[in-house]
Fold these 4 entries.
Entry 1:
Amino acid sequence: MLKSHIIGEEFAKAGVRPGHDGDPRLVPTILELGTEEQKKTWVSKTIRGEISWCQGYSEPGSGSDLASLSTRAVVDGDDFVINGQKIWTSGAQYADMIFCLVRTEPDAPKHQGISYLIFSMDTPGIEVRPLVTMTGDATFNEVFFTDVRVPTDQIVGRRGEGWFVANATLKYERTSLGDPNQAENRFRSIVEMMKRETVDGIPLIEHPTYRDRLLQLQARMLSLKFNGYRVLTRQLRGEDAGLPRWITKLMGCELNHQMASMAIDMLGELGLLYDGSPYLRDEGFWQQRFMMDLGLIIGGGTAQIQKNMISERALGMPKEPKYDERGI
Ligand SMILES: Cc1cc2nc3c(=O)[nH]c(=O)nc-3n(C[C@H](O)[C@H](O)[C@H](O)COP(=O)(O)OP(=O)(O)OC[C@H]3O[C@@H](n4cnc5c(N)ncnc54)[C@H](O)[C@@H]3O)c2cc1C
């Protein structure tokens, strides 16, 4: 655990996103809850980048209330047969494999009727339709399943216990989306940009208003970093790291967007350029991040949902009433 933290820090310093070298959600989930066979089959190939994954969680009508998902899987012989639809599935058009939540026990209470399956995106019956975001790129997709047959042993955890496995994945996803190392990396990039770019011949870094704003971001970046050490300490002690993980997702994703916003403001009219202009700074990185990072405040659980979890589960505030259409 300590080693992977050090590797994460070194990757960030070198400007490498760890997600490119193995799925930061699937690998730790398999290591924590998979069978020995699944560990042997998937972990090293994924880390080496030979297999890429997408995450089939959200459905139309089941996002924040993920446990209400309705994609069905029924057993037929040695297979599950899956029918239904996922949405916002990032990278599904490129992924080799999917980790996917399906309802296998329709009569059980909603959190107990879900299973976590892993299968190839080449399986017959899967149709992927890309969705374009405001960046102009199709980063996510609709994914349709029609009589998709998946062997019953391609399940992580036990049948009906997929909610537990899904939450293990979300736990890792939250810390990777709000990764303090990546935020620190981004902070370094903004400082570089402020040293390089000038207004009326004066570097942005010497502009008092921007310096003030930069220091506020630096304070947030450092508190995110030290919160990351809280996650690590709790993990090493075998304690629950839920609270600092929710804080990481909430703060890290908002901070990344705040840094991109500041860059766009400082670039002035250059910040409005996009797509191939010869005057683009940093190849349009800040414009792209400004738009994409808004999405990451939503993806992996929205900021509002992180705040709910922090207030209800960590601060002991009253829980919001739960509603289940079937009255369960
Ligand atoms: C860039 C991006 C990438 C994504 N990638 C994937 C992916 O790869 N795989 C995948 O499965 N999904 C993915 N998603 C989907 C993402 O997980 C969902 O968008 C998210 O969980 C919110 O669900 P929703 O869109 O249905 O919004 P809703 O749940 O309908 O929420 C709408 C609004 O209501 C608020 N809200 C809802 N419930 C509450 C509540 N109880 N209390 C307070 N406020 C509430 C939300 O915060 C939000 O502001 C991605 C989303 C984005 C933006």
Entry 2:
Amino acid sequence: MKRLTLWLAACAAICTPALAHEERAEAPAAAAAPATPARDKVKLIQAGWLLGVPGQQPQRERTIVVRNDRIERIDSGYTAPETIVDADVELIDLRDRFVLPGMMDMHVHLSSNSRGDAPFKIKYAADDLPGASVEERDDVTHLVDAIGNARKTLMAGFTTVRDLGSAGWNIVALRDAVAAGKLEGPRILTAVSIVRPGAGTGPGACSGVEGCRRVTRQQIDMGADLIKIYATCSGSLPCGLQYAPPVFLDDELKAIVETAHSRQLRVAAHAHGEEGIRAVLRAGVNSVEHGSYTPADSFETFKKNGAFLVPTMSVHANIEKDIKTATGPMRAVMQNFLDKHGPRMMAAWRAGVKIAAGTDAGVSVHGENARELEYYVREGMPAADAIKTATVNAASLIGREQDLGTIEKGKIADIIAVSADPLADITALQHVDFVMKDGRVFRDDQAAKRP
Ligand SMILES: [Zn+2]
């Protein structure tokens, strides 16, 4: 009996449905088994155009068969619901839509609001109340903001994000609540607090090899999915200049990367200046974030290490505004940044460095994540490659290429749709009107119009 059950379980995974049925019919012992499995849910997505694998040609008139949370198969033409008899079937008519994989943003800060979007505050909270330390209160209010920002991100067609820095437990709670289906948002991978140099005890601050190992382990123990390092000053600070030095010492960088890698976590490094980028690549990080001044002599190390560049060009919108009122040396810093960032990213891309899309939403605007791809196209990247950065490449950066990044048999059903061809006009992705994540529909603007 036990062996038969095991065999049936294995068969469910590998046999054709017909064979599984036949074997069950001939096996009365199995038929007598007490548990009646819940009926599957199948969604048939009839797609007018399907860009199942970004980088390849889109296909006309396909049906994506989604069984529960996975893609069971892709049919040519439009499959009728009556042909599926072993499940509850729902038809989703996207025959006038362009369908593609859910997008992925590799650099967001869900608990930070972009400029002009004031952070949530608790009214009337006095400082001397129990449980009202600044850290505790921030953790709660950040969670409130993060819940709203996560929903905006998902509704914009981004089904997976990496959150690269948020002090406290809020982001861990949000990640787990979304995964449990209690809140609406993208699948979240979080770095928890950014590991940064500092002699103090603030979140993520570390000094020396032992100190940096300890703080890295602290993020892992809090539930980090990856580690984020602050390796140069911010681009908006004078110390974030093109030739500014890295802020960590080499042995500290190595200690952080080794500690993360020993626990099979990847490392993302914030780095703007040339020397900082060389330093983090020497230490073996998996992605360089921003990479504003990525030097040509680093391209080979990127490729040798399999490291990605995550450009976050969306922040240009802020700098383009700020430079209008900036004066003196800061104006020159901003102009140099605007002049160099795009061309250097494109030089890296042309040399074969892998690019994964990331926006820095939280600095840039949550829910406008798809603008990032417009920047790449404006710099000269073909739309097909820009879409790859937010799908195939992003899935590879997080090591989830077997599950995410394309619409193919066996993958998790993260699927979005737009009304126009994004290969012809990349801005079409800024108007997503259908969002499915894990086989569940979160947005379907056309649903009301269907018979
Ligand atoms: Zn950032």
Entry 3:
Amino acid sequence: MTAAARTPASFPPDFIRRLEAALGRPIVEPNDAKAYLTDWRGFLTAHNAIVVRPGSTGEVAKIVRACAEARVPIVPQGGNTGLTGGSIPYEEEAAVVVNLGRMNKVRSVDALNYAMTVDAGCVLQTLQKVAEDADRLFPLSLGAEGSCQIGGNLSTNAGGVAVLKYGNARDLVLGVEVVLPDGTIWDGLRGLRKDNTGYDLKQLFLGAEGTLGIITAAVLKLFPKPRDKRTSYVALRDLDAAIELLVRMRSATGDQVASFEYLPRNCMQMALDHIRGVSDPMEKIYDHYALIEVSRTADEDAGFAEHVETALGKAIEDGLVIDAVVAQNQAQAAMFWKIRDSMAEAQKEEGPAIRHDVAVPVSSIPAFYREARKRVLARVPDARIHGFGHVGDGNLHYNIAPPRGADGKAFLSLMGEINAIVHDCVAEYHGSISAEHGIGRIRRDELPRYKDPVELALMKKVKAALDPLGIMNPGKVF
Ligand SMILES: Cc1cc2nc3c(=O)[nH]c(=O)nc-3n(C[C@H](O)[C@H](O)[C@H](O)COP(=O)(O)OP(=O)(O)OC[C@H]3O[C@@H](n4cnc5c(N)ncnc54)[C@H](O)[C@@H]3O)c2cc1C
């Protein structure tokens, strides 16, 4: 059977044949397409979409032009690790998923300019390695780094574990190349640190979740490679102590804290229960932990290590820290990180939960945590609060699991109500309902409740100006 004969009824007649003719190659076979049509958590599946995997910016432009002519929706896709459903078409939508995975070349590395120009489909971990081979650092780092792609990272403005020192994905970009919704290619691949010749248009596409165009390449910032790293796993008195310790560590190390991740015991326990090869760094059990990484680019010397250890020692004396282990080698540091990095996987294994990715000012984290907990427990007594994450950035993954032994499905039916409880609380603390994962599909209907109406109206004007046909990832964000 030819691809054209399989055309789902809702694609315009002859569309797939014309798309294949424009590309000079068939679309992805339905059996192979399945992996691209289900989200990472396995909750969302598109039944009526097709998948194309272009090999160049020119091919992306041809696909977009064909879709624009036929008014067919386009869903850009990177590694498909996003957690808000942005890379998956709606169930019955006749859309074209444009997966960038074949566009995976590093175009150039300019070590003197601390920059590299890369295709959008490069896997994040590969880019970290390319930077390292050039004696540089590309600092973006997150649990999905082995499969997420830089185009997806930029389109979600990914955060991860090094934001404290290096910023979000949008801070790591000098230029972009984008295929616009009418198929025009914008070559904005400039490696400049200064360019005040008008609006900073690249920022429009960073964090746009594929709603304004398809990023096909980017110029990324590189940094000096750290020569000295100290990774510590500490048990804390409570969450307030975490924030106090963060402040002390920043000042003791000359603001060289790269990561400050909080884990309560119930989250760490999930990793111990479900992830092979994870073990508890401490003999005793505590309620609160932090994983702290401090790094600097100067060569190793005793002074830096002493600063870290003195700060931790003082925190122990003052009762903020109850126990601490400083990694003695890379393998031990990797083990600490494995606990943190396996959190998404461990939660998947643990069972259903109502998830939130929220930000509040760092100083408000403990008060927010307690208040949201009180309100959730008032609605579902014994619900399990799994709140962990990038507290150094004021970002918590505040997930609520059902009471032990409760019916998971019945609990998930409370999702709307629980979301409102948590997100209303976030709003009271002047926070954000999406710190780093984006809006995608799953937060779309909540956005108008929490976003400033003027800001939302401006966003819609930008969308209408760039994508007047509304074909670029429709139904996502708005
Ligand atoms: C285990 C695990 C850990 C994670 N940890 C973190 C974390 O610490 N911090 C964090 O921020 N996120 C995290 N995530 C979420 C996810 O990895 C990030 O959102 C990542 O940036 C998505 O990249 P991707 O290539 O998989 O994009 P996809 O999931 O394929 O797409 C995400 C969105 O970007 C759009 N898009 C993708 N590529 C392009 C492109 N080239 N042009 C235009 N639009 C495009 C899609 O349409 C979609 O809206 C985690 C996910 C997992 C599974």
Entry 4:
Amino acid sequence: MFAAASNALLRALLAPTCAVCDRPLTTPLDGPMCDTCVNGVRVMAPPLCRRCGDQRPAYADDHLCVRCRRGERAAVGLARSAGVYDGTLRDMIHALKYRRRRMIAPWLAERMRRDGAEVLEGADAVIPVPLHAWRLWQRGFNQADDLARGLRLPVWRALRRHRGGPPQAGLPAARREANARGAYALCRRARLRPRAWNRLRGATVVLVDDVMTTGATLNACARVLREAGVADVRALTAARAVAAPPPPPRR
Ligand SMILES: [Zn+2]
Ligand SMILES: [Zn+2]
């Protein structure tokens, strides 16, 4: 009753609209997005790869996807994502990144906490995947940092992206690995301050990013952290690019 009245009052006073599709919100107290957008998020459909969380065909009996069997993404111990990077979830991430709708980040972080509980369990801290300083200046914020702050664990900003390079989003899968390798390093503070450095040793940390595509970025970051002595590097992203499903078998 009180919520209904409050929602009506908010609607009358502020006429809030959905942060993604801009339609009027009927229950603004429930969050920054309309029901259509919220219900449009597609979660990862099992069976998932035990290690990296990719969707995999049901017939593979070792519970690993092709990439993990080939040893790609080897520096990341366990990875999960809150949903599939298409449709509404892609619109949400675009609204967050390119239209600065930062109120979407805490909502996504809640989803990540729910669907990535296994990854967050027992972790000492979350580490956002950094943006290059130039891109950070252009955008004004790092969406990965916004997501990391919603995960209710200490946030260690231990990494920096020291080489500009083209954004991963514009590259074919084959070039992403080479582009990501060597682009990340420990940030100066982690290198110079013994306390910051020491806490990495033996720690369990979770890398946080908005989208995982081939996993090359996360793997590059994880390698830097492992070289710094981190015992277990996991990864949690809001979304994951999923390959188109194979065509149905012919009858
Ligand atoms: Zn909407
Ligand atoms: Zn896998």
